[in-house]
Design brief:
Structural class: mainly beta
Largest sheet: 5 strands, antiparallel
Strand content: 25-35%
Order of helices and strands: EEEEEEEEEEEEEEE
Helix content: under 10%
Number of helices: 0
Low-confidence stretches: 90-114
Number of strands: 15
Mean pLDDT: 76
């Protein structure tokens, strides 16, 4: 599974965040036809609402607009541009069916985004979990839907789900070292799990 193809939707803030870049939102630069969607800072035009339409779901841009996410040029091909366009009002909105039909309806797949090899790490004393924030690890309230709290232990290295090319490590062997994300190149970048009293 590719983190870049997964997103989380916060119903309270109406934001959609990328699983690959958790502190960034799905947004558009301008409120106009054909403005492309991209991942960027959660500011500007970045609030969305899932709404039912013609028996399906579509994604409407808020901020007082009548724009929805849309596949440019009705294209069913790979790498087609995703943009905003006037929300379809006709009853011909079907995804990848006929030329000329709307491409704005989408299917929200139900899935378990965390492969079974990834796990949360809980601190027994506090009940909090490790979480990656800005390249560092923090002790945060456990959230099973937060991809920044999932890690994989493989060949002695602890890799975060959000940045699988990197490892949880310290800068040098010694006491009082802060845990950070970095390359997996030194022996002291490796870890082992030991059985404790809990």
């Amino acid at each position: 599974k590719k983190p870049s193809q997964y997103f989380t939707y916060d119903w309270k803030t109406n934001t959609i965040k990328s699983a690959a870049r958790g502190n960034r939102c799905l947004k558009t630069k301008e409120v106009r036809h054909g403005s492309r969607l991209y991942i960027g800072p959660c500011e500007g035009f970045y609030k969305w609402k899932f709404e039912s339409y013609n028996g399906r779901k579509r994604l409407r841009l808020l901020h007082g607009t009548n724009l929805c996410s849309d596949v440019g040029g009705w294209s069913p091909r790979k790498r087609a541009q995703i943009q905003v366009w006037t929300c379809e009002t006709q009853h011909n909105s079907d995804h990848f069916v006929k030329a000329g039909s709307s491409m704005e309806t989408i299917k929200v797949a139900r899935y378990n985004p965390w492969p079974t090899t990834y796990r949360q790490i809980m601190v027994v004393r506090s009940g909090y979990c490790y979480e990656v924030i800005g390249g560092y690890l923090y002790n945060m309230a456990c959230n099973s839907n937060n991809y920044n709290q999932y890690f994989k232990f493989t060949k002695g290295f602890l890799r975060p789900y959000s940045r699988p090319e990197m490892c949880v490590r310290v800068n040098s062997p010694g006491r009082s070292q802060r845990l950070i994300l970095g390359s997996c190149s030194k022996p002291y970048h490796q870890w082992t799990f030991e059985r404790g009293s809990h």
